[in-house]
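pls ignore typos typing on phone
iron/sulfur cluster + seq
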Amino acid sequence: MATHPRQRRTHHAKSAAVAFISLGCPRNLVDSEILISLIKDHHYRFVEEPEQGDIIIINTCTFIQEATEETIDVILKAAALKKQGRTKGVIVYGCFSQRYKDRLRALLPEVDAFLGVDCFDELPGAIEQVLQGKQCAIFSDHKRAKGYTLPTPVERSLTQPHIAYLKISEGCLHRCTFCVIPDIKGPHRSRRMEEILKEGQFRIREQSVSELVIIAQDTSTYGIDLYYDRALPRLLRSLAQMALHKMWIRVLYLHPEGISDELLRVFAEYPQLCRYIDIPIEHASDHILKRMGRTYNRQFLYTLIRKIRDTLPGVFLRSSVIVGFPGESEEDFEELRRFIADISFERLGAFMYSKEEGAAASLLENQIPEKTKQRRLDEVMRLQQEISRQTCARFMGSEIEVLVDDYVAGENLLLCRSEFDAPEVDGLVLVKNTEALPGEFITVRLVDTLEYDLIGERVR
Ligand code: SF4
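k done
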């Protein structure tokens, strides 16, 4: 049967190979999995290696300078493949495109298409255009953003089958002065609870995941826009009640101001909820918290953390802090250092302040020299290493339940995590000389510790 020229082109285009590179945070990972499922739904061949792709799509990150540099590096590598004739087109998706939408064509003429954030539906059309040798650029207009909905990709190409991320909202309600995310991702918008529960049911009941990780820019603000109420406790209760098999539900990115008594009660009530509270505090000097646009003070944090530890004995607190924020004096830094020593977070990430174009703090006076930032970062990391060593030592000899993530055949080694270890962020529990499948829960006795990982022997 003779095919119509347009049909012939479409048929040829449909079998094109598409490679996908996902950069950035778990929220980007969820978006990437949706984009990959869209690529497959439109009958393009999804290939792992960029060199194999007729088209290379990059889901980008730009929240701090370092991430932006990595993104540009990946884009230029893809563009080099195109120059060598090893790929036909490059599509740059997500945060970087959205943030620099007015300058992209001049900045990166070798890129064929730019798509901003939430441009899921526009991707297949953009691939088609690029395969026809055309260019395009489509960005989100957050001012017109109403609500937030996400398709539920059946297949997850970038996460292990036993772990699933569940994104419950997009954008952010806060305006921290160091952060460009609200400008990129727009205002806070929650998914409808019934939609989230439908996806949760699918992941828990049909895909039998062992771990469901709840994410957003700020999970504690969930529902405020739809239900005029912090609805996270209600959502977690419904998800926990769905579990018919042994599983964990982990909540990330809780804003300190969003931790209600009701939320802590739900954590205490449901063993499925990991006793792992992720609350980025950013700093502990009242002077700096104010300059950061964080609307709580150090006393609030002391009270909150005492309440969390009283309500959830044995809970692990994860947090993150920024050092070298404009105007941070030695006294401010000392207050932060003393607070970290007092609280002894079980898990702590520390970052040097990154001056971000477009963020209010970039215009503040008293920007701190890089050398001083680095010295302060080193001091915090040394302090936290000692705290982590003491935290690990507390557990030596005890038995804990761990989730098997992977098996290293050559070394007869299981890579596992406890409920106190978030995927890709925290340490591992290494278990030798035993076999188990990824997704299984086993019990181990902790016998030794490395810098960030623990060594366990299987008990059962
Ligand atoms: S809470 Fe602050 S730091 Fe976090 S995404 Fe929102 S504005 Fe950025």
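Residues 10-140 form a domain with the Rossmann fold fold (CATH 3.40.50.12160). The chain is about 35% helix and 20% strand. more later
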